[in-house]
């Protein structure tokens, strides 16, 4: 004979879990896409990489193109 205070095992535990599952809020579909975004982008804002780019030294020129491969061209 198992006492009711045996923790997980016991008929009372299963009843409580089933009732908890019904307390979950109903699932609501996502809002329609026609609504405007909550955080609209700020127009006419200089990109953060624009100012620091001028302080950095000029980028190195690309390396010379490698020699053409041996595969014949059509």
UniProtKB/TrEMBL annotation:
Composition skew (Pro residues), residue ranges: 27-46, 58-74
Bias (Low complexity): 47-57
Bias kind Basic residues: ranges: 11-26
Annotated stretches, region: Disordered: 1-74
Protein name listed in UniProt: Uncharacterized protein
């Amino acid at each position: 004979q198992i006492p009711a205070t045996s923790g997980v095992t016991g008929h009372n535990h299963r009843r409580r879990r089933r009732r908890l599952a019904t307390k979950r809020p109903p699932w609501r579909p996502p809002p329609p896409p026609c609504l405007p975004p909550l955080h609209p982008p700020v127009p006419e804002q200089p990109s953060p990489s624009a100012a620091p780019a001028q302080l950095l030294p000029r980028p190195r020129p690309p390396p010379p193109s490698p020699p053409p491969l041996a595969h014949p061209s059509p």
